[in-house]
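User: Structure please.
Assistant: Input sequence and predicted structure:
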Amino acid sequence: MQMTDFCDHLYNESTDGYIQILKLDDENNSGERTIKIYNTKNDGLRDIVEELHKKEDVFLAPNTMYIPKRRVENIRQFRALFQDIDCESMGLEKAETVYMIWIMHYEGKIPKPTMVTDSGRGVHLYWRIQNAPFGALNTWQELQDYIYYNLKHLGADRKATDGARVLRLPGTINSKCDANCEVLYIDNDVEYSMYELREEYLNYKPKTHQLKMQQTKKIDNKVISNRFFNSYSLHMERANDLETLCRLRKYEMTGYRNMAVHCFAYWKGIYVRDNYELENIVIEFNNAFTEPLKETEVQAVLRCIPKAIDKFIAYEQGLRSGERKRVSKGMRDKEGYWYKNETLIDRLGITSKEQKHMKTIIGLDEKYDRKNEKRRADRRNEEGLIKREQEKVNTLNEVRELVRNGLKNKDIAEKLKISVRQVQRLKKEV
């Protein structure tokens, strides 16, 4: 019943994609534990978890994947927000920890969890959400970081803020402490909307107010995402721009490899919080170069990333919690790694031709070119005509119709509120 209740809370007929379950098996002759992986759709999930009932060290990914490979970039649906609270490491009892979490909810600091499970050495918290696609990644990650930031003092694990994270399955056993994992609390009447949570807890304001703020240049401590990106989505698009740059150069990045690997590892690390998974992604990226960096050089870059991500979360979530932050023009006061476009263009040697394929890493010339192109496009309608040209076409059509109806020039001029001479000129084009 524990396992069924757990599954029914997170997954229903709206579930799409693969749900991954991991089972750590006993150590082999070399002292390593092997992993058995199950990938299933919702309709086959309950048969698998029943098979794993009372087994040791079983983990499940709350979010689903569009292919049977568990990675953040493969997420099909976000099903829940979650946190892994290792309260015992902080000297706290589980009951005491859950009580403190409920107090924080009543104080308006965090939303009320829809499910709480005992993980053996701590508790897992879940906030069931209306399922959302991969495009909602930045919103999901912001909310995940917000909850982590507010629960960090209770033992929240930053590595568990990863969208592809697996957590212990209730109804199984944690071999590290020989304890049963079980459901402590479920509320099936609550399902959150991420966008409502964002407005309530992340200090977001409606877009109409956003535009007003931008026009008046007024500054306050509210989080106002600009027309295109906020801090989270900007990092994601910068990583995509960097991959685009590498493809354009057919991965001939000699002379720019260190900067490319450093930026890629950091930008990817905003969303990939599992250090092992991030390492694999960065190594794959480096190995695609025609002349890859040495493994020791890649590892040196990776060692700096977790600390930088911690600073990024502290800065961004502090801002979302209402703290006033001073930010200089050069963004030197921001925590983590922040590079201006000019710096990235210079240090990666990005040409004006390459910038045309980028979304975020562009110089002033490319920025103005895009604005002018947009203005030109905005001025022309679907027929490629500007307003004045379209008005002339409309008048010509009206004159043509009135001529067919037998009206004289004077009558046409009076009906269309134009001069007789103008009617005569238009009739020549009809």
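Confidence is low (pLDDT under 50) at residues 207-227.
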